[in-house]
Amino acid sequence: MVGSGVKRGTAELAILSVLQTGELHGYEIARRIEQQTGGKLKFTLASLYPLLYRMEKRGWVRGEWQTSESGRRRRRYRITSSGKKKVVPLRAEWSELFEALRQLAKVPHA
Amino acid sequence: MPDWEKLVSDRLAQLALEERERQEVIAELAGHLEEIYEGSRGKGASHDEAIRRALQQVDDWKKLRQEIYVARTKENPMNARTSRLWVPSFVTLAASVITLVAFGRLGLQPGPLGSRPHHEEWSSHLIGGITGGPHAVNEYTVWLMALPLIGALGARLSRRAGGTLREIIISGAFPALAWSTILLIILSFAASLGHGLLEAAIAPMGPIGLVTVLVMIPGACLLLGVLVYYGAAKRWTKSVADA
Global pTM? Predict the structure, then answer.
């Protein structure tokens, strides 16, 4: 059964997926998702950070301040072990949603 | 270059978080806007256009403020530090005390932490426990063997909650830290009372022996468990990621 939090779940899955490739700060996360989805999925600052903070609270990601070579301080996020475990059920839920939509599309109009 | 921190700070002035946490949020969001501004400038946008693009990231600052507040405070009633550090630490402490009492009740020979034998027996039990002498199997030595498992348990609880390496180590080795504090308090109290109480308290092994038995050796056992668990968990995580 597709849960009510699917929309948020897919956004969480997108973030966890890009963080599986390595540590990124918020702007890089948004940019990476936009690039990898060909611009179909975009995060604004307003949509990204409340979600990141919620995920951090749940222990799925962990943010740490780091200073870059240029001297800039940025909070870089990494996926935690519990975040990695969360990716599998989130992917299943996402696939289920799209399978359900595909089934609906096959139903001929009356 | 606009002062992004001031801009964000003005708009999130009523963000009801602790000041340090609020400043961190402001710095992080300001950094994000700065990246967008510079990215736009790099693509040839004018100063005003780059600012406009950055500010387009947030339609409603009041809504964002509320969402950040809820995300950082209300969703999980347990404070992040509590779940990463304090809960695992107290579980580790409780487990270490419970196992010590349990081994004593199982009928094992009392060691230096059990019933209070005569002074000379203290050292014979400890030496026996360490060197494999006649009292090699007593509650203390069996307990020491259990401590790596307890340290690993604390490390696992902390890591599962997203703890940093420092929080993981502290969680696993917390009982040793607690005992060192308790020891310090008891010895200070004994010293303040006078009447030779301090000397009586440390007489069996002396201050160094007491610290070694109560803090250093248990701490090393706990730390061993933490490090073994942490190494195994890292390897497992890497193998899952590679797969």
Answer: 0.52
